[in-house]
Amino acid sequence: MLDGALLGGAAALAGALNAVAGGGSFLTLPALAMVGVPLVSANATGTAALLPGYLAGAWALRKELSGPMSPSLLRLGVLSVLGGAAGAALLLSTSNHAFARIVPWLLLAATLLFAIGPGLVRRRLATADSHKPRGRWLADLGIVAVAVYGGYFNGGLGILLLAVLGALGHTDMGRMNGIKNFVSAILTLIAVAIYAASGAIVWTYALWMALGATVGGYAGGMLARRLKPEVVRGFVVLTGLAMTAAFLLKAY
Who's near 112: CB < 8 A, 6+ residues apart? Predict the structure, then answer.
């Protein structure tokens, strides 16, 4: 019961952070590790808990995906499935010992990306000289690479997707957010399906956390207009750095 309360609370805070600025996964993985879930399973369980939020986000911005686009919606879906499946398979083939040594560096990279990513996207949009994405194969490679990362770890996924879309020449932030949410939902859905088939998800904890994340997401959405995103982002970055240090000390 205490474990459920701890995980539900962590997920609620994570959901609130995701609604305001992002970075909620920096809390879910450590919380699951704290209650004794092996790291690979903790990563899979935390991803499953956040899946409803990804699906809701994709549905909320579905109108942003109407009309012609490059890559097409079907192509984006296929690329997301392929990358998410590959990332999930890669995670499941990683031992808990090896993942424990990889996690601190993934957390550090995600934290730094979270800190500088919005600035990079804004700069790219401000200096964009074309409204057309770059070459199709370059776009495909970029989407697949991010989907593999998302299927493997998921932390900082949204910022990474926006940065890649900006680098590929997209300039409409509404459309970019729609693509980001769609790709995130599809790759996470296939990854969770693979995690579930392998038995890597602790469903009791995942359900507690999904409930907490839903409540937190709603509360965060209500508070979003009152809180300064920069302050929340600073809190997330500090949390990410603290979690990185904790996992480094434990792994090394």
Answer: none
